[in-house]
Amino acid sequence: MNATYILLSMASLLLIIFAWFWTSLMARTLPFGVRIPPDRVNEPVIQHAKRDYHAGLLVILLLVAAIGWFFSRYSSLLFVNIAGLFGTMLLIYLNFYSARRRISQAKQRGNWYSGLRQVVMADISTNQTPYHIPFLWYVPALAIIVAMVVIALVRYPVLPAQIPTHFGADGQPNQWTDKLVALWTLPLPAIFTTALLLGLARYIPTARQQVDPANPEADVAYQHELRHRTSQILLVLATVTNLVFLAVSLLIFGAIPESNANAVLIGIVTILLLVIIGTLVYLTRTIIQRNQHQYQAQNNPKFVARDDDRYWIGGMFYYNPDDPALWIDKRIGIGWTVNMANPWGKTFIIAIIAIILAIVSITLFVR
User: Fold this and answer.
1) d(CA 36, CA 234)
2) Which 8-state DSSP code applies to residue 340?
3) Which pLDDT tens digit goes with each residue over 208-232?
4) Is 152 exposed, middle or buried (0-12, 13-18, 19+ CB in 10 A)?
5) Are 349 and 340 in contact (CB under 8 A)?
6) Which one, of 125, 114, 107, lies nearest residue 45 by Cα?
7) All structural domains of the chain with their residue ranges
8) Residue 84, CA distances (Å) to 37, 65, 93 in order
9) pLDDT tens, residue by residue, 227-282
10) Which residues 6+ apart lie within 8 Å of 48 measured at CB?
11) Which of 20, 109, 112, 296 is exposed most, by the fewest CB atoms within 10 A?
12) What's the number of CA atoms in the CB half-sphere (13 Å) around residue 138?
């Protein structure tokens, strides 16, 4: 069992583990992405939906494991693991959507927002006093890209005309590329990814901050801290991602012998796992702080956040042509998503798709 198989198998398991704790990442007034008034957070239907959601995850775990074991006897293990990864994501979403629909129907039947004064509250102080990340936070990610280019230039004269640029699951090269083409194409994924992550890290602290009108002061304090930490996490993620690209470049440009390819893959898997563990620790700490802020101040019984479920497609994708904001707080979990009705939001999504297609094209077609 090599590093690629281990990584794909663990990815499916980690998806289910994260989905299990997903309910802990939900704000109490947003169970499964459904906006509810604060006085409805203890409704029995919500508790029943969470119970059935967790039971569904156990069924998904057993189902994916059984199907994967069966088909691995007749097909490529790599193909089975990739198909299992996408199948796991689809089943998790269907399980989530079932719980969401159940709570949404209960809200509509019970007319939970009847007689309540719905408002939209936002904090614009971040635009007046923007948060600036010290330049030293950007240095590691940028330095690694420079190192990749320098290594390529130094190694270029001693490289053969054709160099391996892709390695199979067994760690052996199975694709070669002209060294001049590899010289300028290999750094591109790192450059695109770094530009995206650094741009997000700089922009997120200035994005519009929607505030919970039932407890605005605590919510503003929590979100300011969250945005600053998220920007720092994105810069660390850019550095870690570039370390992975650097390891691959060292292998491709011959600085690391091909016989050590599996060791490099194992190192990449280890780095990714450490990033996942670190992110989970960060999320846990952030959730604890959010819960503390949420109940430090007395809730305001006069106002509740507007019922905006109609703008959220499937509970995850925000589409509101009347909202000029580009970045919106995610309905579930921690972070932000784009307003898909905003022209810049559409441009951002197209750019992400283009980057992914470019990376895949470079991997598959550059020989």
Assistant:
1) 31
2) T
3) 667 777 677 777 777 777 777 778 8
4) buried
5) yes
6) 107
7) 1-113, 124-367
8) 38, 9, 14
9) 777 788 888 888 888 888 887 777 777 777 666 666 666 676 677 667 767 766 77
10) 102
11) 109
12) 13
In the prediction, which pLDDT does 274 show?
74
- Asked if 331 and 305 touch (Cβ cutoff 8 Å), the reply is no
User: What tokens does 304 get?
Assistant: 């509740």
Residue 168 identity (one-letter amino acid): G
Residue 74 is encoded by which pair of tokens?
A: 């007749």
**3-state SS, residue 186:** coil
Q: Across the strands, what pairs with 304?
A: 118
Cα–Cα distance between 14 and 16 in angstroms, integer? Answer: 5
What three-state secondary structure class fits 166? strand
Confidence of residue 1 (pLDDT cuts 50, 70, 90): very low
Residue 7: which residues within 8 A CB-CB, separation 6 or more? 269, 272
DSSP assignment letter at 156:
G
Pull the structure tokens for residue 1. Answer: 């069992």
